[in-house]
Amino acid sequence: MLGLVLEGGAMRAGFVAGALMALMDKNLDDFDAAVAVSASVPTLAYFASGQREEMEKVWRHELTSPRLVCYHNIPAASLALSAKRPILNIDRLVFDIIKEKYPLNRNAFLASKMICRFAAASVPHGEQVFLKPEENDIYDVIKACLAVPGCYPTAVPMNDCEYVDGATVNPLPLKGLPDDETLKVVAILSKPMSCENEPPNFLERALFWRYFKKYDWMLEKLWEAAQIYNTQVFQLEQMAQENPPRALIVCPDKMPPVKFVTLDHKKINRTIDLGYSKVEELEDQIGSFLEEAPS
Length: 295
Description:
Oligomer: single chain
Mean pLDDT: 87
Radius of gyration: 18 Å
């Protein structure tokens, strides 16, 4: 099997979206299984259903709105957790934009040969889970995977459990692919290989301390996730150096213009364009990698 792994990273994941658009345009999209985390979850859903146009419109035209990125709620969010005062309005993104304005083609999604798994973290224990969209409402799954701790004030209930953004416990969930069947992996990262994942800084901990107080496991998991990410990247590097290689990594050469969230429309577009250009640069290498079967 040929696997695809997508890193998130909030709006920095525009790099991932741009890369997927290029893969679709160049017919380099014949994957058997895929796993995405955080902001790349809806991107993977559009990719699997063949909805390139909708993917691009969401990323280029819908994300830099003050109705989505609510900086004005930061003071209130640091004082009390309330679904009425999110810093990132995930409900608007999922239900007003993705569901109503650019709805997913559920039939095309379910008919895709590509097995998709979406990474989330269950609460209260912070365990990594891989949600199966064919077994749940796809929009509820997307919302659960986008519920960034602190920026979105509550966990998302579904099937008698509650979930938050899967990057809380693992920002690069390689284990979402079937280990016993996946022979080769294309991994699309949203930051350079040289940029190690770091635990939350003092300002982040201070701003969202009420959230961490409610879920006392979360701060420890965020520290662990930083180490897990670095280990996963090292594993991919080792796989890429095998002969023949079992992994191909697509990532930016330097940090994209968007590091987390922004209201700057131009920064989003430049980040998307970086992902598209990187695939163009690696087109021949990617094509050869997809065609060559490991011994």
